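Structure first, sequence second, as always.
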């Protein structure tokens, strides 16, 4: 795996008062053996592009048995081209679990999906705006919970970060850099259903800030790099040079073979940030297609390492020069165990190698939906005959990096 890294150094440390919590590897090493998950927490509501009401929910991942001071929060948005995906998708769940084991509180959100096709450029841009508004509402939810609900997740409201994969990367980028009404694209109808002529939106928790300290963009893009200015939020950018879904540089975004709109991918964002002096790191997946971390354990490891150490740099006086560094495993429960699924392709039964104890196995479809969850033991066969033919992703919940593609014939 060839990795090319570009960096603009000199990250500003605005949270030095928080340094005391950064001892013992918190925020960039595994220091907890497991995480605890609270699912389906309502954080707001709004209407979809079709005008139907939708409750917005999120899952919270926390380090298990962590009695420390209020912790940094990462709000994560899944991918799926704003038409599919979910907060439990394989593109985000692994990052949520592992960041929690490093000491973060992590929220994986559902946001409004779907858009019309009468005018693809305007409709798709409106979908990005709705997703961004929902991400902002989720951030406001946590700040509200600190003030009005006795801080149930034990977070520091001054240490909130946004991260996203693919479409979620779009949302994180637009949250950070599309922040002035004068920057709104002329073809975007701010009176479109569910947008409500509002930059921040009406998805919930008004009166609280939706600002973040920094963002992580995994294979997403921005509508226009001209929206990035000196002093804007720091960013971690990760992107494949051969991405055939979201442009690596500045190019036309296509969907199902139809041109949608011109966007600026991570390469162009990196150039703009260099020009105006925004602190950032740029991790290049040389020769890789879209979101290689989804199906390749080595790229998952690289992405998690770069993300966690970049965030630790923002939170602590942590010396990170945008170069990959291995993640230290402090607990024996987290040792990496090679896993394989066989037969693959499969028709009726599969077996999993590399299991030495009882494990929770999950299977997600290509849209990120959970289709099977089962407690398995070594040498056990798993019946997959009820699954329709197609691409799936198999994961062992308690083993880092263990996500394997599976074809059902």
């Amino acid at each position: 795996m060839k990795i090319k890294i570009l960096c603009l150094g000199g990250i500003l440390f605005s949270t030095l008062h928080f340094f005391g919590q950064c001892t013992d590897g918190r925020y960039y090493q595994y220091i907890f053996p497991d995480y605890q998950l609270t699912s389906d927490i309502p954080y707001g509501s709004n209407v979809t592009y079709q005008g139907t009401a939708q409750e917005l929910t999120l899952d919270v991942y926390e380090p298990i048995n962590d009695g420390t001071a209020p912790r940094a929060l990462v709000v994560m948005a899944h991918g799926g081209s704003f038409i599919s995906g979910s907060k439990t998708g394989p593109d985000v769940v692994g990052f949520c679990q592992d960041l929690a084991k490093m000491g973060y509180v992590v929220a994986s959100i559902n946001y409004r999906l779907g858009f019309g096709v009468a005018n693809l450029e305007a409709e798709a841009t409106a979908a990005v705006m709705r997703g961004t508004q929902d991400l902002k509402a989720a951030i406001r939810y946590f700040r509200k919970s600190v003030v009005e609900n006795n801080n149930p997740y034990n977070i520091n409201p001054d240490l909130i970060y946004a991260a996203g994969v693919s479409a979620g990367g779009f949302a994180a980028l637009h949250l950070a850099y599309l922040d002035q009404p004068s920057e709104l694209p002329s073809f975007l109808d701010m009176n479109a259903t569910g947008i409500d002529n509002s930059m921040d939106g009406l998805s919930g928790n008004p009166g609280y800030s939706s600002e973040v300290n920094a963002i992580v963009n995994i294979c997403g893009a921005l509508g226009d790099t001209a929206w990035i200015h000196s002093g804007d939020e720091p960013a971690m950018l990760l992107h494949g040079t051969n991405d055939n879904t979201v442009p690596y540089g500045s190019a036309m975004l296509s969907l199902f073979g139809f041109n949608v709109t011109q966007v600026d991918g991570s390469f162009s964002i990196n150039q703009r940030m260099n020009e105006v002096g925004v602190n950032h790191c740029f991790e290049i997946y040389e020769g890789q297609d879209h979101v290689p971390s989804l199906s390749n354990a080595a790229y998952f490891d690289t992405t998690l390492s770069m993300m966690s150490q970049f965030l630790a740099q923002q939170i602590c006086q942590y010396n990170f020069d945008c170069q990959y560094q291995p993640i230290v495993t402090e607990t024996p429960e987290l040792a990496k165990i090679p896993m394989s699924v066989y037969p693959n392709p499969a028709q009726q039964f599969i077996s999993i190698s590399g299991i030495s104890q009882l494990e929770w196995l999950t299977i997600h479809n290509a849209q990120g939906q959970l289709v099977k969850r089962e407690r398995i033991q070594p040498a056990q066969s798993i019946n997959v005959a009820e699954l329709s033919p197609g691409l799936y992703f198999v994961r062992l919940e308690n083993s880092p990096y263990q996500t394997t593609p599976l074809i059902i014939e």
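Margin note: The longest helix spans residues 120-148.
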